[in-house]
Design brief:
- About 20% of the residues lie in helices and about 40% in strands.
- It contains 3 helices and 8 strands; from the N terminus they run ββαββααββββ.
- It has a 5-stranded antiparallel sheet with strand order 1-8-3-5-6, covered by helices on one side. Strands 2-7-4 form a 3-stranded antiparallel sheet.
- The termini are close together.
């Protein structure tokens, strides 16, 4: 069994949910060398998150942002406010969705369902580049 790990930096994205499957696949060349395995994708941040969801209709990403803003609105009486009104709601959204995914690898690709894609959900208005650690384990070709 082999293990590999790489850190990639995704450029800053606007607030909302962004499909990043191809971006990760393209930047983790080692993925193509595995016949079977598991990829752990870990976001090193507390005001953004990762999730799997619909990859075909961009309206899903818009609706996700709307629903997350309803669940964790900016106008609650938060105490943690010194980084701006979007910060504490961003922490809540990050905790709700999570910052890591485990995805099977089959024949050098993520073995996702037909309509599944990896989302980076950016919860801040003034985002920064985001670091993602990708750990691969499995049997090489």
């Amino acid at each position: 069994m082999s293990w590999e790990q790489t850190t990639i930096v995704l450029p800053a994205k606007s607030r909302g949910c962004h499909l990043i499957t191809k971006e990760i696949e393209g930047r983790v060349a080692q993925l193509r060398t595995y016949s079977v395995g598991l990829a752990n994708i870990f976001l090193q941040h507390t005001s953004a998150s990762l999730t799997l969801n619909e990859n075909a209709d961009p309206d899903v990403r818009t609706d996700m942002e709307m629903a997350l803003n309803t669940i964790a609105p900016e106008d609650l009486p938060y105490i943690h406010t010194y980084e701006g009104p979007d910060d504490m709601p961003g922490h809540l959204k990050s905790s709700l969705l999570g910052v890591s995914l485990n995805i099977p690898i089959t024949n050098g690709r993520f073995n996702l369902g037909t309509w599944q894609g990896i989302y980076l959900c950016e919860h801040r208005d003034e985002a920064t580049p985001r670091k993602v650690v990708v750990t691969l384990q499995g049997q090489k070709k």
